[in-house]
C-alpha cells in the first residue's frame, strides 16, 4: 500500500509502511538508527519516524506518482497519519531527485550518504571520521547525527530548505530558499530567499543583483561579538545576537501562540506563512510578509513585465509591444513581442506608464531630469526601463535603470513617478550596418566612461570607512557625506536654524547650489550600525509631502542627517497669533492640511515598512518656497529609540499633541491621527493648544473646543486675526468636524489618515455619531502639569528630551 499525498498540488507518493501483503505486521520504524544501516528507496521509502503529542515527523523518500523521481526528506503530519496532510519541511536533494532503488547509507565511518541507483553520490553529510555514533530524528523534527557524548555533529536544522520548525534557528549566512511553484510539480529551488543580515531580516528576489522586497530592520547590539540569528519559537519569530537567552532577544515578530504543531514556510510566491494543524488540517495562521506588503508588492504577483493594480488585476504595459505569456492566466506575466536587440538602438523607443512604484527602488542617478534618465537607459544595453521620479523639481529627480522588470505596482497620485519601458520597434532598418558600426563606437566610448566613473567611485569608496560595505545592495540608500564636506557646506556650522528635539539644525548649501539643512545628533556612536540601518530605511522614503533625507554623515560621536532645506521654516511660525510672519488665507491653510494628511497617509499606509511618526506638531511640519507642507523628522523616534523592546519608556511625545492612550494601551498609527487633529485645530483657530495669554479657563484649546461643541458656538473659535478665515467660517467649522473625528478618545474610532485625505478631497463623508468629549482626565493631568512647570515658548514645548 502506498499513501499518496497532495504535495505541490500534484499526486506525490509517500512511500510508507507495509510491504505488499496486507496481512503482514505493520513495520514500526525507529526514531533513531545505528551506524552501518542502509535503506533502499523501494516500496517502503521509510527511514525514521518520531511521534510527539502534537505531530508525527517522518524521514524518508517522497516522490511524484507518475514520475520516478524522489527526495530524501523530512515531513510533518498529524499524529493520526492523515494522508493528504504530509508536508515536506526539509529535503536533502531538492535539486537532484533520485530514482527507484536509490540508497541511503549511514556508513560505519559515520557519514550519511545518498546514492542514486547508478551508484553516483547525490548528497552526503560529509561527516566521515567525526566520530558519529548514530542518527536521531528528534521531537522537534531535527535529523541529528550525534557522537558518543550525545553532542550534535550534523543536523538538518543547520541546512534549512524553505521551512523553519519551532525551535529552529536561521543564522546569518544561512538562507531559506523557496521552492518553485505551487502548480509546478518539479521541486526545484525558486526565486526567493530569506536571510538574516547585520541589519535585520530580509527577503530577496533572485536577480542580478538580488533585490530586497521585504525588510525588517533590527537595531542595537554590537554585531562584531557574534552572529545574528532568528529563532522560530512558540509565539514569535525572535531576533538574537550571539546570545541564546530568550530574555536577550532584540526584537520579534508576533506569531499566534501554537495550540498544536506549526511550521513556517517561504512560499513559492514569496510570502512567509505560518501553518498550524487545526482539526488535522494545515491552516495558515499568519503571513509575516503581508504585514508590510500588499498583494501587488511581491516581485512576481503578476509575473514579469506586468502591471498590478488594486484587486490584483494584472495587465501588460502596452498591447503593441507586450503580450500575456498565457491569455488565460494574466498573472504569469507579459513577454516582449519583439525582443530588445542591443545592436539596433535606433529602433528602440519608450512606452510610458504613469504613477508606478517598483517593489524596490535603487536610484542609479540623482539630480537628473527625465530626458537624461531615458537617454541613459537607451545607452545601456541591459537596461529594460527607466524609472524617473521627483518630488517638486522636475529637473532634479531620481533615475532607476533596472535590468529586469518584475511586477510593477500602480501607486496613487502620491508620487510624480513615471516608468519608461524600453521597447523594440518591429520595422526593419536599412541603415542597420551603419548603426551597428556607430553604436559599437559609442558603446566603446560609454565603456571607457563607465570605467572611469567606476574608478572614481571605487577610489572614493576605498577612502570611506568600513561601514560603507554595509550599503551594498540596499535600495534607496541616501548619500554619505564626509564631515569635511558638511563643514564646508555649513560654513563650519555657523548658521544655526534652530534646536529641535533631536539636536541642533544648521543651514548649508552644497556645491551644486542646492540648500540643505543639517541636523546634528549627539551621542549615537555606540549604535552606529543601527543608525546606518535606520538612515537607510528613512532615506528610501520619498514623497512630495515628506522632507527628503538627502544624506548623512558620521564623525566621532556625532551623526548628521542632511535634509532638503525648506525656505519657509516650520508651520508654528505661520499659524500662531503673535509670532506668525504673515497671515495665511483659508485656501492656503486647506492645502497645508491636505499636504500633512497625505504625508502621514504615506508613512502609515504606503511605505514598505509602516512608520509611525510619534511626534506630529507644527514644529515638525516644514514649508517650502511655495508653501507646500512637508512632514519632517519621521523615523527619528525609531532612530533614537535604542532600547527597542520597550517603546514606552524611551519615546516621549510632545505634551499637548500626545494621544490619551499613550500611557495605557499599545501605540498604533492612530496616535499620529490624534496629533494631526490637534495641529488641525491649531491651524483653524490660529492659536496654540496651550495659551496662557488668555483667560485661565481657555488655556487648553481642547476644553474650549469641547465647550463650543456643547454650546453650538464653534464659529467663535475660528481664527479671528484673519478676515479671510472669518469669511469662510462655515467651511472652517466643517473642517472642525474632521478634527473632532481625529480627536476621538477611543483610538479605534479615529479615521485612518487615508480616510482623512479622502474626506478632505471630498470623496468621503465624516462618520456621524462622534464622541464630543475630548478631555480625557489623564490627558489633562499630564499635559497641564507640564505647561505649569515651563514657560510657554514653542521651543520648550518641543524641546530636547
Ligand atoms: C542500536 O544498537 C544497540 C546496541 O548496540 C541496540 O540496542 C539498538 O536497538 C540499536 N538500535 C537500532 C535502531 O537498531
Ligand atoms: C529495484 O530493485 C529490485 C530488486 O532489487 C528490482 O526488482 C527492481 O526492478 C528495481 N527497480 C528499478 C526501477 O530498478
Ligand atoms: C554502505 O556503506 C558501507 C561502508 O560504510 C558499505 O560497505 C556498504 O556496501 C554500503 N551499502 C550500500 C548499500 O551501498
Ligand atoms: C533523540 O532525541 C530525543 C529528543 O527529541 C532525545 O530525547 C533522545 O535522547 C535522543 N536519542 C538519542 C539516542 O540521542
Ligand atoms: C516547472 O518548472 C520547470 C523549471 O522552472 C520548468 O522547466 C517546467 O517547464 C515547469 N513545468 C510546468 C508544467 O510549468
Ligand atoms: C505555546 O504557548 C502557549 C502559551 O504559553 C501554550 O498554551 C501552548 O501549549 C504552547 N504550544 C505548544 C505547541 O507548545
Ligand atoms: C531644479 O533643479 C535644477 C537642477 O538641480 C536647478 O538648476 C534648478 O534651479 C531647480 N529649480 C528649482 C525651482 O528649484
Ligand atoms: C508633481 O509635480 C508637480 C510639479 O511639477 C507638482 O505641482 C505636483 O504637486 C506633483 N504631484 C505630486 C502628486 O507629487
Ligand atoms: C564592539 O565590540 C568590540 C569588542 O568586543 C569593540 O572593539 C568595538 O569597538 C565595539 N563596537 C561598537 C560599535 O561598539
Automatic annotation (TrEMBL):
It is a single-pass type I membrane protein. Keywords: ATP-binding, Disulfide bond, EGF-like domain, Glycoprotein, Kinase, Lectin, Membrane, Nucleotide-binding, Phosphoprotein, Receptor, Serine/threonine-protein kinase, Signal, Transferase, Transmembrane, Transmembrane helix. ATP binds at residue 519. CDD domains: B_lectin, PAN_AP_plant, STKc_IRAK. It is found in: Membrane. Residues 1-19 form the signal peptide. It is an enzyme of class 2 (transferase). Residues 342-418 form the Apple domain. InterPro entries: Bulb-type_lectin_dom, Bulb-type_lectin_dom_sf, G-type_lectin_kinases/EP1-like, Kinase-like_dom_sf, Pan_app, Prot_kinase_dom, Protein_kinase_ATP_BS, Ser/Thr_kinase_AS. One of its GO terms (cellular component) is membrane. It catalyses: L-seryl-[protein] + ATP = O-phospho-L-seryl-[protein] + ADP + H(+); L-threonyl-[protein] + ATP = O-phospho-L-threonyl-[protein] + ADP + H(+). Its EC number is 2.7.11.1. The chain crosses the membrane at residues 431-457. Residues 491-770 form the Protein kinase domain. Residues 33-158 form the Bulb-type lectin domain. Pfam families: B_lectin (PF01453), PAN_2 (PF08276), Pkinase (PF00069). It comes from the Eukaryota. One of its GO terms (molecular function) is protein serine kinase activity. Belongs to the protein kinase superfamily. Ser/Thr protein kinase family. This is Receptor-like serine/threonine-protein kinase. It comes from Mikania micrantha (bitter vine). The lineage of its organism: Eukaryota, Viridiplantae, Streptophyta, Embryophyta, Tracheophyta.
Amino acid at each position: 500500500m502506498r499513501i499518496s499525498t497532495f504535495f505541490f498540488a500534484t499526486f506525490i507518493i509517500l512511500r510508507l509502511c507495509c510491504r505488499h501483503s496486507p496481512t503482514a505486521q505493520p513495520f514500526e520504524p525507529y526514531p533513531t538508527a545505528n551506524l552501518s544501516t542502509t535503506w533502499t528507496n523501494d516500496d517502503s521509502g521509510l527511514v525514521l519516524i518520531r511521534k510527539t503529542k502534537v505531530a508525527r515527523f517522518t524521514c524518508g523518500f517522497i516522490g511524484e506518482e507518475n514520475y520516478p523521481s524522489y527526495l530524501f526528506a523530512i515531513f510533518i503530519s498529524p499524529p493520526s497519519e492523515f494522508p493528504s496532510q504530509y508536508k515536506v519541511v526539509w529535503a536533502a536533494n531538492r535539486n537532484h531527485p533520485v530514482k527507484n532503488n536509490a540508497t541511503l547509507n549511514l556508513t560505519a565511518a559515520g557519514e550519511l550518504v545518498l546514492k542514486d541507483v547508478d551508484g553516483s553520490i547525490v548528497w552526503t553529510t560529509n561527516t566521515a571520521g567525526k566520530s558519529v555514533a548514530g542518527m536521531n530524528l528528534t521531537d522537534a523534527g531535527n535529523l541529528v547525527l550525534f557522537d558518543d557524548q550525545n553532542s550534535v555533529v550534523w543536523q538538518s536544522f543547520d541546512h534549512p530548505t524553505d521551512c523553519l520548525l519551532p525551535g529552529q534557528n536561521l543564522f546569518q549566512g544561512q538562507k531559506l530558499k523557496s521552492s518553485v511553484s505551487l502548480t509546478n510539480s518539479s521541486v526545484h529551488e525558486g526565486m526567493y530567499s530569506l536571510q538574516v543580515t547585520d541589519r535585520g531580516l530580509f527577503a530577496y528576489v533572485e536577480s542580478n543583483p538580488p533585490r530586497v522586497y521585504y525588510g525588517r530592520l533590527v537595531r542595537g547590539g554590537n554585531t562584531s561579538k557574534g552572529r545574528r540569528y532568528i529563532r522560530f519559537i512558540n509565539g514569535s519569530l525572535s531576533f538574537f545576537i550571539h546570545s541564546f537567552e530568550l530574555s536577550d532577544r532584540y526584537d520579534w515578530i508576533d506569531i499566534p501562540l501554537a495550540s498544536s504543531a506549526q511550521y513556517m514556510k517561504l512560499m513559492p510566491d514569496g510570502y512567509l506563512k505560518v501553518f498550524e494543524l487545526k482539526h488535522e488540517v494545515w491552516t495558515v495562521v499568519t503571513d509575516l510578509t503581508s504585514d508590510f506588503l500588499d498583494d501587488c508588492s511581491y516581485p512576481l504577483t503578476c509575473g514579469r513585465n506586468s502591471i498590478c493594480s488594486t484587486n490584483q488585476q494584472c495587465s501588460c504595459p502596452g498591447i503593441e509591444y507586450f503580450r500575456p505569456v498565457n491569455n488565460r492566466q494574466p498573472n504569469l506575466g507579459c513577454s516582449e513581442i519583439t525582443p530588445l536587440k542591443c545592436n539596433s538602438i535606433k529602433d528602440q523607443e519608450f512606452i510610458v506608464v504613469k504613477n508606478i512604484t517598483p517593489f524596490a527602488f535603487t536610484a542609479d542617478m540623482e539630480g537628473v531630469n527625465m530626458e537624461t534618465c531615458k537617454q541613459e537607459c537607451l545607452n545601456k544595453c541591459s537596461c529594460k526601463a527607466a524609472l524617473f521620479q521627483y518630488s517638486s523639481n522636475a529637473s532634479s529627480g531620481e533615475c532607476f535603470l533596472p535590468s529586469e522588470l518584475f511586477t510593477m505596482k500602480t501607486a496613487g497620485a502620491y508620487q510624480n513617478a513615471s516608468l519608461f519601458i524600453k521597447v523594440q520597434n518591429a520595422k526593419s532598418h536599412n541603415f542597420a550596418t551603419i548603426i551597428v558600426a556607430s553604436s559599437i563606437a559609442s558603446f566603446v566610448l560609454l565603456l571607457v566612461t563607465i570605467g572611469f566613473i567606476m574608478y572614481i567611485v571605487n577610489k572614493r569608496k576605498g577612502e570611506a570607512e568600513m561601514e560603507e560595505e554595509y550599503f551594498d545592495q540596499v535600495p534607496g540608500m541616501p548619500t554619505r557625506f564626509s564631515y569635511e564636506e558638511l563643514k564646508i557646506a555649513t560654513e563650519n556650522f555657523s548658521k544655526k536654524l534652530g534646536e529641535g528635539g533631536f539636536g541642533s539644525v544648521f543651514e548649508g548649501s552644497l556645491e551644486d547650489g542646492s540648500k540643505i539643512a543639517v541636523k546634528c545628533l549627539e551621542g549615537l556612536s555606540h549604535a552606529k550600525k543601527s543608525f546606518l540601518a535606520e538612515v537607510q530605511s528613512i532615506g528610501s522614503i520619498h514623497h512630495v509631502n515628506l522632507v527628503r533625507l538627502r544624506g548623512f554623515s558620521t564623525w566621532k560621536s556625532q551623526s548628521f542627517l542632511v535634509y532638503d532645506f525648506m525656505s519657509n521654516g516650520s508651520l508654528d511660525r505661520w499659524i500662531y497669533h503673535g509670532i506668525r510672519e504673515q497671515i495665511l488665507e483659508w485656501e492656503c491653510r486647506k492645502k497645508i492640511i491636505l499636504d500633512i494628511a497625505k504625508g502621514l497617509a504615506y508613512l502609515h499606509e504606503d511605505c514598505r515598512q509602516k512608520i509611525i511618526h510619534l511626534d506630529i506638531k507644527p514644529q515638525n511640519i516644514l514649508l517650502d518656497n511655495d508653501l507646500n507642507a512637508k512632514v519632517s523628522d519621521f523615523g527619528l523616534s525609531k532612530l533614537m529609540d535604542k532600547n527597542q523592546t520597550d517603546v514606552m519608556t524611551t519615546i516621549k511625545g510632545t505634551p499637548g499633541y500626545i494621544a490619551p492612550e499613550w500611557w495605557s494601551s499599545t501605540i498604533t498609527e492612530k496616535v499620529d491621527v490624534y496629533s494631526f487633529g490637534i495641529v488641525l485645530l491649531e491651524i483653524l483657530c490660529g492659536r496654540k493648544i496651550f495659551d496662557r495669554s488668555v483667560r485661565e479657563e481657555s488655556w487648553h484649546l481642547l476644553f474650549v473646543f469641547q465647550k463650543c461643541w456643547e454650546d453650538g458656538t464653534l464659529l467663535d473659535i475660528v481664527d479671528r486675526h484673519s478676515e479671510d478665515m472669518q469669511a469662510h467660517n462655515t467651511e472652517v467649522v466643517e473642517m472642525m468636524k474632521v478634527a473632532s473625528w481625529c480627536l476621538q478618545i477611543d483610538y479605534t474610532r479615529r479615521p485612518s489618515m487615508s480616510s482623512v485625505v479622502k474626506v478632505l478631497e471630498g470623496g468621503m463623508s465624516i462618520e456621524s455619531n462622534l464622541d464630543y468629549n475630548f478631555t480625557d482626565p489623564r490627558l489633562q493631568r499630564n499635559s497641564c502639569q507640564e505647561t505649569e512647570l515651563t514657560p510657554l515658548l514653542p521651543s520648550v514645548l518641543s524641546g530636547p528630551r
